[in-house]
Amino acid sequence: VLELMDEGLANDDVAMGICSAATKEGFLKVVNSIVGPERLAKFDIILAGDDVTEKKPSPLIYNIARERLGLPADKCVVIEDSLVGLKAALGANMRCIITPAGTSTDNVDFCAEGADAVIPTLKGDLYQVQISDIFGENCDDEDECVFEPLINLTGVLAEQDQCFVSWASASPFGSTLGV
Asked: How much helix, strand and coil, in percent to the nearest 5, is found in the chain?
């Protein structure tokens, strides 16, 4: 996760945020020890459970983050690790990649629940998910380009024999995005 975070934080075309259901105090203890305060300070937005009036699976935390960043939902991709988080992302009309956490998610069919992709980890022996696997440029005939969610994890998912649900979104240029 740290490699993907660093790549996203270094890319001016990608806004990065953390939306955690944990209390801010508990969240900061854990995240500061794993992510580190220097990296954490580079995020565009950080929201914790006590920053909102409704917890996940309510989409409120994602909607507040999106509003504060000034982004439409169709430009957002959430990386989650639980069914509750997936339901929150879907409720906010955002695309969602699942990296299941722990044995409590072993029997959950995340694809059937609406996930765009399910992958056990963002980095394996033979692959590493990159920002370009999640976002990419979409250009029209006049070379006007926008950076949009593309979620192109086909090769990674084939290596892991995981489910993948393709999705499409109408671009501002009338073409269809998807894998």
From this structure: 35, 20, 45
Dihedral (Cα; 170, 96, 79, 138), 10-degree rounding: -10
| pLDDT score at 153 | 62
Q: From CA 3, how far away is CA 99, in angstroms rounded? A: 15
Query: For residue 130, which phi and psi values (nearest 5 degrees)?
Result: -120, 165
**DSSP-assigned states of every residue in 68-123:** HHT--GGG-EEEESSHHHHHHHHHTT-EEEE---SGGGTT--HHHHT-SEE-S-SB
Low-confidence ranges of the chain (pLDDT < 70): 126, 147, 150-179
pTM equals 0.80
10 Å Cβ neighbour count for 95?
A: 23
CA–CA separation, 50 and 28 (whole Å): 12
